[in-house]
Structure formats: C-alpha cells, structure tokens
C-alpha cells in the first residue's frame, strides 16, 4: 500500500504588470473587483503624457495648485484614477487623491485609502491598497503599493490569494514583494503560507517568474511515502546556464533505496536544432540483495542543419530490465519496454532524398536481441506524372545487419548470422481519379542481393543470394450514394465497394536469414496491402483477389453517424513463403473475414468494434468492442472487451489467449466534485488485472484528489541481484494529490489526466469523419 502527498509551488504565474493576462480555464473563477470601473479607452497620445481631469467642482491657481472634488476622474494614457477628492500640485507635478479611490490600468485594478502620483517620473504610491489582476484569480492586500518610474511594482506588508473574497482556504503573506517588469521576475521576502488560517510554510526569500523567462534557483520540493521507496523527498535545482542551455538537477532521497540523482540538460543548437541529455543514478539500491548500482543515460537530438539537411539521434540505456518498473524516471514509464538507439542524417530535395541511418533497439526482458542496423544507406526518387499521367518511383537501400552475438548459438540452438543487403525497388503506376471512384494499376520489381556471414554449415543459408520478384497490382474503388430514411430520419447512405488483384512472383527464400521481418496484422485495411510481411527478408508470393465494401450514413447536417467495413482475400494459389523454413502452412482458399464498425447508436451512445473471423474453421481470431456513453463534458461510461487467441508470451514463450473485459467511467457528483474509475478483468485467469478509483474535489482556489490503484506488475528476469530477488506480481497504492491554484502544483488535475492513469489508457475509439 502506498501513500503519496505531493505539493509543488511556483508562485505568481503570469503576474505580468504590462500586457494581457492569460484567459482563465473553465475550472477557474475569475475574481472581479467589487467596485464597477468604466473600461479604459485607448489613448491617442502616443507618449501617454497628456493628463485629463474632470470633476463636479474645481478650484485652481495658475501654475500652483488645483483642487478637485466630487466624482474626480483622472486619465493619463491607459491609466485611470477615480476619487472623491484630488489635489494637483502643478509646480511639483504631483497628484494626491483620496476618498473611494480607484486606480486602474490594463493589467490591474487597485482600491486604496490614498494615492500620491508623481507625473514627472510616472510613478505612484497607494496606501491601504487592495488589488485585483485582470483576467486572473489573483487578488490581495498591501499596506503600501508603489509603482516605480521604470514600471516596477513594490508591495509592502502584502498578501495574495486566488480564493474568492471571504474564502480563507489559502493565503500567502509577505513583508515585501518586488515585481521587475524588465526582467519579468518577482522577488519575495519573508513569505508565509497559510492554509485555513494555519501557517504551514515559511520561506525567507524566493524569486518567481512573472513571464516565460527562466532564472537559476531552487524549485519547490516534492514529498511522498510508500512501502517500496519509504519516505521520499525530491528537491530540484534549476540552472539557467545561458539562453540556449539549461539544466535541472534533482536529488531524490528514498529511505528504502538510497539517494537517486536525476539530471536533465537541455540545449539549442542554432535556429532549428535542439536536444536533451538525461543522466540518472542510484548508488547501491538497498531494496535489492547485493545493493546494485542502477543508472540511466539518454540523449535525444533532432533538427535541420539547413533547408535540405535533417539530423536525428536518440539513445537510451539502463542498468537493468526492471529500471522503469522500480524507479520514477523522467525518460520513460513502466509500460515502456523498448529502448531506441537511432542515428540518422538525411538530405531532401523536391523529388528525391538520401540518408544514412544506424539503429539498435534494446527490448527489456527479451533474451534474444534484435539485429543492429550498422548502417543503412538509402536513396529514393519520385517522379509523378513522368509521362501521360504515369508515375514513377525508385526506392533503394544498402543495409548491414550486425549482431553482438554473431556466429554464436541463440537460445533456439541456431547460429546467429549477419548479412549485408542491397535492395532496389522501381515501380510504375497509372492512377485514374474521378468524382465517383478511382482505379490504380501498378507494376513493381523487387531486386535484392544478400551477402551473408557467420552462419553454420547446416543452417541452410547461402553466402550470396540474388532475388528478383515482380509484382502487379490492380486496385479499384467506386462510390455510390442514395437518400434513405431510417427511424423517421433522413440520411444519405454511401456504398463504397473495393476490389484488388495482386500478383507477386515466387522465389525460394529459405536460404535467407530473418533480419528485420515479421508478420503483419490482418485487419480490414491490411487486406488491401501488397505485402504479407514487414521487412524485406520474406516477400510472399501472391495470386489473389481482395473484395471489400464500406457503407456510411450521414445525417441532414452531413455528420457521419455510422461506418461499416467488411472484406476478405480470396487466394488463387497457395503461399509458398514462410517465416521459418521448417514451417509448413496449409494455405486456405480465403483469408479471415475482417469487419470494423463505428456508430453513433442513439444520441450519446457510441459503439466501436472490429472482428477477424476464420470462416473455414468457424473460429474467432481477434475481436474488440467498446460501448461509450458520453452525455457531456467529463461524463463517460465505457464498456470494453477484447479477445486475442494464441498470443505469444515473450517471457515464457508460451501461447496464451487474451480475454479481457473492462469498464471505465468519469462522472461529476456535483460541480466541484467528480469521480473517475476503471476495472479490467481477465476472464481466462479469473482475476482482476487493474482497478483504479479516484475522486477529486476542485474549488476556485484549490483542488485535491484521492485515488486507489491496483494493477498487475510487469517483472522481467534480471541478474542485478546476487541472490534471486522475488518481486510482487501485483502492486497497489493510495495516492493523495493536492494543488493550490496560483501556487502551481503537481501537474494538471482533471478527468483527462485520471483517465490516462494506469496500464489501459482511455482511447476515444471512434473514427467517424466529423
């Protein structure tokens, strides 16, 4: 069981004295000044020097003093002052005002007991002030509020909050606050945070941003406690090294594990390149036998060198397979099990491009590692409308496949080969498009050469293989539509039949190793692919016809209410190419029947589903369904089911059936209180695999969330412990998140954030074209 209490503070967001305030979100309550003040009219005085004064009564001596009384209004540029009385000292260029005093400019409104304005340097001092920032929740009191000649703001014996007047949920008090309008930073001295009138935090000095500018300093800490990590305290420190460099260093102490150090370095290189480096290190993890060191390093760089050149680099490595399962990394989550290592540079022109790429993917928990691409050089050329609407394209690559265990035996008892592959793929296509349909005829040639190494004599592989395979494809699609009436409603219905003929020549490829090839999924859109396998090591022969049809319903507002698609492949000859040389597959006369449907059933009810059905064996090969009820914002109930038979468990190499049902919901209990929850159940194992329940209260100035999470935990085999280290198969936790609005927080609290908690994130399943 885990308890988390998290409070993060980042004071005065967007407290900009000059400029527009950000628009409040729907969940915010903008606090309005209690006194009605007429809107300030745009000034035609470019230098804002002209002072205009109006009143019911006035008394003046030329060049000396002028007194005004009764509904006094003073304007200068975009500033406005209203008071019962005002005295203008013309000799010293000073204005004193009092009585129902109101000061307003484009950024804030202030009421005060008295005001003293000095026109020669454009400054002012207000006593006994109350202020409100326009368009924001922020308001407060100040014994003295001074506007300096350089438009800085000084507040003495002051406080502020984002709660409505009379609500003391939280209040920040300070002896002094200085807002620098040029540096766009605020300084706060002797700050005290009160919650429900009780002081809970004292900070002698702090600096806060009032814009997007960055400044070196400590960020606010986070606190938590859990059964796995113990008491946890993280204190991040931000270092603004230069305009193009910055770094965040976070010491994170966990009483059960030790000191976990996280470092994030960000940089800009030129006008169009950026990158990030992450280093994470835990010295001697005390929760694992042997106290192993655990670490992560990550580098990402991308951008354009100029208008033609593009670069990409992405590299991540961790100390062990369970790093993301055990530690709260800034780079990836527990559900991520693939680490990408990619480097690429490419050159682009209007009709051709070329590039060189290296790639290595580490799969956490896998004992057989994939091949490394070291390197791949590619060249692609496109010439649309080469002659008489005839399109020409040419793709080519030279790829060297390396492996760190080359020539050694794999777990399957086979020697691991390596290879260099040269592939060229010219194609000609003739598309015909019309308002009611389209027809495309295409010719393609696959020419591939392999030079293979490090294989055993009895592997069946050849040192050199040359493979030439032709392909012909004809694809046509027609659109029909009609007006129809269903349930006393008018609709426009479409009927969109599709047909494809595909021919791919056959060549024995059993003497070629598998370097980047895997089977593709047989969904509806996959029926019209021209390839059965991803990658180039196996190109399956084909002599087949694919038939499919899609029907849609549109209402009177041309909004799609239903889409249904169904299709199947009819094989005219057997497939002679398989992924494994010893695998003998009986090719059926037709593929699975693939169907998909998305529909708005009635008002707020939506259905989405897909099925892949073996019509010969009368067996369900895959299916998933969701039923959504979405009557409004933050209101959702979703029922779901998915079934996948004969799925390979990579941890045990066993075949398992996945049959899971789930329910997910979000619902407001009242305007300031709502509930989110989900529950997923494994029908085969008769056990719950994930449960999430959360309830959140949100007022104008603070929010709190209490949630419970129970889920199955992915644990990989690891060798970092000196003795076998048993790990729990399931983990559970209770979490408490608290946010003070206007003082930042632990991240966004809301329905969308809660729906994405856990292993099964919410996905709006509908693909209706609206």
From TrEMBL:
Superkingdom of source: Bacteria
Domain LptD C-terminal: 293-671
Signal peptide, first to last residue: 1-18
Domain Organic solvent tolerance-like N-terminal: 53-184
Pfam family name, one: LptD_N
Segments passing through the bilayer: none
Intracellular or extracellular location(s): Cell outer membrane
Protein name, entry field: LPS-assembly protein LptD
Upper classification of the organism: Bacteria, Pseudomonadati, Pseudomonadota, Gammaproteobacteria, Alteromonadales
